[in-house]
Amino acid sequence: MNTPKLNLVNPETFKNVRSAGAFLSQSTGIDLYNASDCIYKALRPSNKSHSTHGYFVERGADKQIILSRIVKETN
Hints:
Number of domains: 1
Distance between the termini: 10 Å
Largest sheet: 4 strands, antiparallel
Number of strands: 4
Strand content: 25-35%
């Protein structure tokens, strides 16, 4: 049985949630405020997947936001 493997590619780094939300809004076509809200929700400790709209979200050094595209591979 082949299970899909998740790969994270092309990490993008942003200085704050608002600029990361603008990128997410442009790349997915969702509203800017909804994109920022989704990033905040993905960063919550209670969110186990830390992902939204096909991107893995994490907080880097100096409170930077890192968005990495999730790509599914089947082997």
